[in-house]
Design a protein that fits this description.
The structure is a single chain. With 515 residues, the protein is mainly β. The protein contains one helix and 44 strands. Strand 40 (462-467) and strand 41 (470-475) form a beta hairpin. The N and C termini lie far apart (104 Å).
Length: 515
């Protein structure tokens, strides 16, 4: 059934003319400011012709809920064609708030030149059943699922490329060929791939599980925020992939088959934050980055694993110590944190961050990619020797954090010949804090070298400063680390603690001998 209404949508009804069917699809084509209205059967395929004067096509259901069949746009010549699944003006800001049809069968623009000049926006009550391929996408909202290809060459409108849906189905895809994807958001599961071929992905937000690939092949991912789990079956390339890195990836759980790869030739490959809030990282999961850095937003950074780490984390060049790898439970027997270059451990690795009895049985490995067998594991665990500078400046700490003897200046148990230097630096395997309810976090005493009686120094003779995993003790008055005296620095009960949520006390005794 198809009839034509000309002008402003008014028609002269002759005697015996049928009433308008409530389940028809209403199409308004605007040419040079003049709208022409046609009606088509619900759920049936139909074509819409355009010319050089066509500026806008509105598609709605008369009853507001019927489905729209496959729409094919024929003809060409319009330099700025807008297709809107909705009534009224094409939206330039915000959402078309009223959905005025159910399913849509798909949208095709036959002429490739016309397709490049066609922008799309809309809001529907149900599913996108078939392929939608246009030149530009401004914003599309589906209260149901996206079940097929949803593709645009470029962002549309004000440079936005936004897709909101209840879900995306397996086999579906959302692709921007050139330019940035502003947002893809699902209220439940996202099983359709999201891809920016030559641009960034600013946000993928999933209310359920993410089971599809997310790839910025030549760009960057800013945020992937998943309420449920990330569980992406392996394919020809990585599950989550980005040449220029990712700012934040958060999820409740991550599966053994998921791979996150931010490594590409000539790309930055930096990760701001990966947070797995429960379940840990299982054996088989691989996280591969060039470095750890600060994310665009939020106070958390690094790799945060609330559980055990039994997968593989590989880091090419570390990043900064302030971006830690935080493991709430154990670094399990299958877990490996591999650094690609010798002396590449620049990060702070924390194990047993939740103070749940976690252990360090897996490996932290240097020269991970050495094909000649040069790779080696840091041992013995958990209190390995050697100054942190020999590994890259970072440290691996099993909470509660122990004094890192060989990293202290001077080395714990060693000798000193300061000749006027008035500072010692105590190093720990992980970051510590100072409960400022305690005026003095340490007790300092001295004795004449070779004697047995320790004499306490008053707190007014020294000052303390805590920063990261370092405690600096500095003489103020007459205490100057004289060469013929031994010195002992001990923790004050309750004053110093490991910087993990349960804040367990740090206990230690540090000594140096005079020369």
């Amino acid at each position: 059934m198809k009839r034509l209404l000309i002008g402003m949508g008014l028609a002269v009804l002759t005697a015996g003319a049928p009433l308008q069917a409530v389940n028809e699809i209403k199409v308004i084509v605007t040419n040079s400011g003049t709208p022409t209205t046609t009606y088509h059967d619900a759920n049936a395929a139909f074509s819409v012709g355009v010319s050089s004067t066509t500026t806008l096509i509105n598609i709605t259901a008369v009853d507001g809920v019927s489905g729209v069949g496959v729409v094919t746009i024929t003809g060409s010549g319009s330099s700025d064609l807008k297709v809107f699944y909705g009534s009224g003006a094409f939206p330039t800001t915000g959402l078309a708030t009223t959905a005025e049809c159910g399913d849509i069968g798909g949208l095709t623009v036959s002429n490739s030149t016309q397709r490049a000049a066609t922008s799309l926006a809309g809001h529907i009550k149900e599913d996108v059943e078939g392929s939608v391929i246009v030149g530009k996408l401004y914003r599309f909202d589906a209260d149901g699922a996206i079940k097929s290809t949803f593709q645009a060459a470029l962002p549309g409108g004000t440079g936005l490329f936004i897709v909101n849906a209840a879900s995306t189905s397996a086999g579906a895809s959302i692709t921007c060929d050139s330019g940035d994807i502003s947002k893809v958001e699902t209220t439940s599961n996202c099983a359709g791939a999201v891809s920016a071929t030559d641009g960034d992905i600013l946000l993928v937000k999933v209310g359920g599980d993410l089971t599809a690939t997310v790839r910025a092949s030549d760009g960057r991912i800013v945020d992937i925020l998943v309420t449920g789990g990330i569980d992406i079956a392996p394919g020809s390339s990585s599950s989550i992939r980005s040449k220029e890195g990712a700012s934040r990836i958060t999820c409740a759980t991550i599966s053994s088959q998921t791979t996150i790869s931010l490594i590409a030739d000539n790309g930055t490959g930096a990760l701001g934050l990966l947070k797995v809030s429960s379940g840990g990282i299982p054996n088989g999961c691989h996280v591969h980055v060039k470095s750890l850095t600060l994310p665009d937003t939020g106070s958390e950074s690094g790799i945060i694993v609330n559980g055990d780490m039994n997968g593989l984390i590989t880091i090419q060049n570390g990043g900064t110590v302030s971006q830690p790898i935080w493991i709430g439970g154990s670094l399990g027997s299958n877990g490996v944190i591999g650094y690609y270059y010798e002396f590449g451990l620049t990060n702070q690795i924390i194990i047993n961050g939740d103070d749940v009895g976690g252990t360090w049985s897996g490996n932290v490995r240097m020269d991970y990619d050495d094909d000649e067998g040069g790779a080696y594991n840091i041992t013995p665990k958990p209190y390995y020797p050697g100054a942190s500078s020999t590994y890259g400046g970072g440290a691996v700490g099993l909470a509660t954090f122990h004094l890192y003897d060989d990293d202290c200046q001077p080395v714990n148990g060693g000798s000193h010949a300061f000749t006027g230097t008035t500072t010692v630096v105590l190093s720990f395997y992980g970051p510590i804090g100072w409960d400022t309810n305690y005026t003095d976090p340490v007790a300092v005493s001295y004795r004449l070298a070779g004697t047995s009686t320790w004499v306490p120094l008053p707190g007014t003779d020294f000052s303390c400063q805590v920063s990261g995993r370092f405690l600096t003790v500095t003489a103020i008055t007459n205490w100057d680390f004289a060469d013929d005296f031994d010195y002992r620095i001990e923790s004050v009960d309750g004053a110093l603690y490991s910087q993990v949520p349960s804040t367990p006390d740090v206990d230690f005794t540090y000594t140096i001998s005079g020369q």
